[in-house]
Amino acid sequence: MQNSTEIMSSKPEFVIVPGAWHGPESFKPTSDLLSKEGYTSHGITLPSVGANPQVQSFTPDAEATKAVLDKVLSSGKDVVLIYHSYGGVVGSEALAEYVKEGPKPGWGKVKRLVYVCAFALPEGSSLMAALQFKPLPWFILDKPDIVEAANPQEILYNDISPQSLVDELISKIQTHSYPTFSSQLTVAPWKTIPSTYILCEKDNAIPIFAQEGMVAAAKAMAPNAFDTVERVDASHSPFISQPEWLAEKLVKAAQ
Question: Taking every annotated instance into account, which residue ranges of this chain make up the domain AB hydrolase-1 (predicted)?
Answer without folding.
Answer: 14-248
